[in-house]
Amino acid sequence: MMEGAASQSAGPDAAAGPPPRAVLVYSPKFSDYDMGAQHPMKPIRLVRTYELIKAAGLLNQPNVSWRRPRRAARDALALVHSERYLTVVRLLSRGALIPDLFAYGLGTGDNPVFPGMYEASALAVGGTVLAVDLVAEGRADVAFNIGGGLHHAHRERAAGFCVFNDPAIGIEHLVRRRPGTKVAYVDIDAHHGDGVEEVFYERRDVLTISLHESGHYLFPGSGFVESIGEGEGRGFSVNLPLPPNTHDAAYLRAFEQVVPPLLEAFAPDLVVTQLGIDSHFADPLTHLQLTLRGYAEVVSRLRQLSPRWVALGGGGYNMDVAPRAWTIAFASMAGVDRPDELPEEVAGQYQVDTFFDATSPAVSREEETSVRALIQESVDQIRRLVFPHHGL
Questions:
Q1: pTM of the complete model beyond 0.85
Q2: Of the listed 39, 81, 151, 152, which one is catalytic?
Q3: 32-44: buried (b, 16+ CB within 10 Å) or exposed (e) per residue?
């Protein structure tokens, strides 16, 4: 663990009182999760995030530290994934030939096999388990595993660039170690957090909320309002699909109508969030229109709602955007200031010289009206289908 001692100034959204004890979870070996030069999820985004957080002075704050994770053990991975799947991933990782690898979602364009795949995926999980333990055990108030957030992996199948599902494993690890613990999972990635939802779909100790571009337009083609859980879990899976071109104002309005009332009613012991930034207007894979100012407002609200908070990375495929977004997020989590301009030692890596966007997408009055109406329809459905399960 590395610690520093510099400015104690709190960010503009800081709560009263001392800033929270914040931990950044990061390892240079996160870069081993490398699906190839042509793959959109490039490990350099994590390297740049760490370098920008460091250059911005965040790791020099007295309330901030960083921790290197270790690979998760097989028994932790088996909390969510089958033994057969774990064996297949390990064998493929070592260069073995598996005749039915496509049945496991591997060897595809989204999830190519790469050397060390098992170990790199287990390290991402280890980072999330470490972050959860730090906060649950009272050694930190907030923790951010920038290498986590691989929310699409299923019990026996890789999907959407995700081999192991670290958010689900981290949550399951916690609730098994501490029976009676309630966890809220809030996913703001542009893609539906389907793998996490699937694990907890019939349970009420974990509330999952996903705000994402509608499955009518984007992978994985799921996450519609009507998917609210089953059995004891009915009403504890919440999905807010968003139309293409959703912009800051519409997103924030929808977030406020759904997330705060549900979190307050559920009263979780711990909040886990997936902070994907593929909702940004410059992301090459999605069609939402958020700016980094809008994203920062969402993160700020999550901080206010989450006194014990584990955050994870996730989607974000514009290398100019993701590091800035996650540095903004970590500063907000820690309640500390960061400079307005990018530090000189890393500024040459970016096309802008400030943390926030130099431009923003133009939104016509007609488009704004249409987007708001579509989102409000989904919000009203959530109020009818989900809110009564929480006494709202």
A1: yes
A2: 152
A3: bbbbeeebbbbbe
